[in-house]
Amino acid sequence: MDETALLEAPEMEQPVAEAARARRVPRREYPGALIVVEGIDGSGKSTQLYLLKRWLEIGGYRIHFTEWNSSPLVKSATRRGKQRKLLTPVTFSLLHAADFADRCERQILPLLHGGSLVLADRYIYTAFARDGARGCPERWLRNLYRFAPVPDVTFYFRAPREIAVNRILSGRPRLKYYEAGMDLNLAFDRAESFRLFQGLIMEQYDRMVVTDNFVQMDGTVPVNTLQKQMREIVRKRVDLKRFLPAS
Questions:
Q1: 33 phi, psi to nearest 5 deg
Q2: Of 95, 166, 171, 177, which alpha carbon lies 20 to 30 A from 143's?
């Protein structure tokens, strides 16, 4: 079967842009809250989320951390597909969707309904950005992840592509095949392919700043300054008192 036929999902009830705007305000179906960080590799998002997590832990708040592509349910299948270079844009996207669905059902939603503050290092917007860069249609991707809870805050850490890429290249002896976007045939050299791939991903993220109500953070700002800004935004957007232990 032609892979493009798999992407011909039924029409959504709203146009993509309108549906995205409808997701701006979190639906209050649970007492918990969800904070998400997004950005290209090397943008500094994981460092900032770790610092926020430690600050909240020291403060005694009820929190839970989750990260992209971490479900044991599909990890072995994903690993085999990568090792054998069998993954197409569609199969890669569906594996990540299965991973997220498992974590959402078993971790994220129960914790939100239980009144926890959930911190997510990457969320559905990673799929929109990476899979979109690989050619998967936006409408199909948004339909695929339509079950996902809407974050209370989505931080988008944006650093110039060259700065972010150089941070990664300086600490990695060798880039992995799919990580570098080698499946897209952008370049023969892995480092150059990675640069081009990250640029495509950044373009996808930039489109979501308005439609998905991202809070854009400057990934070139000193770490401590950026963390202070992040904490202040969290204080304003989330009622942290709700996540302190009952006295």
A1: -145, 155
A2: 177
- The total of structural domains in the chain comes to 1
Q: Is 229 contained in some domain? A: no
pTM above 0.70, yes or no: yes
Range of the domain at 94: 32-224
Instruction: Print the SS3 string covering 26-88.
Output: CCCCCCCEEEEEECCCCCCHHHHHHHHHHHHHHCCCCEEEEECCCCHHHHHHHHHHHHCCCCC
**Assigned domain for 105 exists:** yes
Encoding tokens for residue 185? 């045939």
Under 8 Å CB-to-CB from 140, ≥6 apart: which residues? Answer: 7, 9
Q: CA-CA distance, 18 to 142, in Å (whole number)? A: 12
User: CA angle, 161 as apex, 160 and 163 as ends, to 5°?
Assistant: 70
Q: Token pair for residue 170?
A: 């300086």
The C-alpha atoms of residue 176 and residue 174 are separated, in whole angstroms, by: 7
Q: Does the residue 111 lie in any domain?
A: yes
Looking only at the bridges linking them, the beta strands covering 117-121 and 153-158 are unpaired
Query: 217: which DSSP letter?
Result: E
Residue at 247 is within a domain: no
Residue 37 sits in a domain whose CATH number is 3.40.50.300
Helix axes 161-169, 190-211, angle to 10 degrees: 130
What would the pLDDT profile of 143-173 be if each residue is shown by its tens digit? 999 999 999 999 999 999 999 999 999 988 7
Q: Read out DSSP for 141-190?
A: HHHHTTTSPPPSEEEEEE--HHHHHHHHHTT-SS--TTTTTGGGTS-SSH
The closest of 247, 212, 239, 245 to 33, measured between CA atoms, is 239
